[in-house]
Design a protein that fits this description.
Layout (H helix, E strand, L loop, with lengths): L2 E7 L4 H11 L5 E8 L5 H8 L4 E3 L7 H9 L6 E4 L16 E5 L14 H10 L3 E8 L9 E8 L6 H27 L1
Parallel strand pairs: 1-2, 1-4, 2-3, 4-5
Antiparallel strand pairs: 5-6, 6-7
Helix pairs in contact: 4-5
Length: about 190
Amino acid sequence: MTIKLALLISGSGRTLQNFIEEIAARRLDASIAVVVSSSRGAGGNERAKTAGIPLEIVDPKAPGFSDAVTKAVDPHKPDLVLLAGFLHLWKFPAKYEGRVLNIHPALLPKYGGKGMYGHRVHEAVLAAGDKESGCTVHVADLRYDRGPIILQRRVPVHPDDTPATLAARVFAEEMIAYPEAVRLVAAKLG
């Protein structure tokens, strides 16, 4: 079964690009029906256009933001909605419960919550002196970085790590983890 995806982005679109490549290489039996971006200047917007994927832009400061996201997603009837570096809380309707996934660049429940994204997460891991970090794919709910964990991938934290070096190692695992989680969830939807 080819699973239909909607991806929500706010930035560079590296995760979007990873899915585009995984699908093109036939390692993931999926299609991307729409990309919804929360920024007119997001680099991921150009990636979506280049790949010929419909792109919708929603203003996170506008009243009714969550409703606008839902209206952008609904016509495409996705099987799953993937939060792919989406920096805003989408208060999705009940019909999407269990079908919205998120990836976080830490081993949740540590280093999650509002404002914990990107280098902030890696800085916190390093400041705590943790010996390992990684990424978590989970079923999203209506709170930041909560919901049942689907899978985690771990990486060591090296003594000479900077937020950038740790981020690069974690992102390499994200590229494996997120498509794998989609395959696992798709098999259950099957």
